[in-house]
Design brief:
This protein is of the alpha+beta class and 206 residues long. It folds into two domains: 3-70, OB fold (Dihydrolipoamide Acetyltransferase, E2P), CATH 2.40.50; 106-205, no CATH class. 55% of the residues lie in helices and 17% in strands. The protein has helices spanning 68-104, 111-136, 143-164, 172-193, 199-205, and strands spanning 3-11, 16-21, 28-31, 47-54, 60-67. A five-stranded antiparallel sheet has the order 3-2-1-4-5. A hairpin with a 4-residue loop joins strand 1 (3-11) and strand 2 (16-21). The protein is elongated, with a radius of gyration of 26 Å.
Length: 206
Amino acid sequence: MKYQGRIQQWDDAKGYGFVEPNGGGTRAFTHIKAFKQRSRRPVNGDIIVYEVEQDRNGNHRACNISLLKDHKAKRLRANKPTSQRKRNVIVLSIFSGALALFTLSGRLPFIVPIVYGAVSLLTILFYGIDKSAAKKEKRRVSEAKLHILSLLGGWPGALLAQQIFKHKRSKSSFMRVYWVTVLVNLILLGLIAFEVISTQAFMVEI
């Protein structure tokens, strides 16, 4: 069971003190070695999240301790992949539905979804190659090549590959450029769907 409490009587030189649980209760001995991946050394007044165990003499000791800030950050990181998956499902569902609608209504030729599918599969392949190369410390697929594939219609595949291989999605500089390629590609697709530019121009582009 996890508790929250405030550190008291902390002796940083010796690396120990006590924790008083929020709401009252039995305080527990707290040692620096019981902290998990702390971002800094604790000080008096810090709020911590901890569990309680008893030593051989029946005294309470805090264990599996985290600073409250670190604990919240860890939970946020744990929830981030789930939120990314939900976002990706929504984006791909909306895009797939819109692409099917415009194709079936005649606004887009049937070659367009075929191109998206083919380039997406190629993009997934290149992401997989790059991930494998990164693990083996071999020659990587350039980020420019991955972005070009996204721009040419492989961005749905890239979105899937980022989840499948857990690759590139945490690199903010890469993801910023990736979403720009998605936007540019969708603008081009919209221009075709509403006959601002011709299909022939689109096919030359890809």
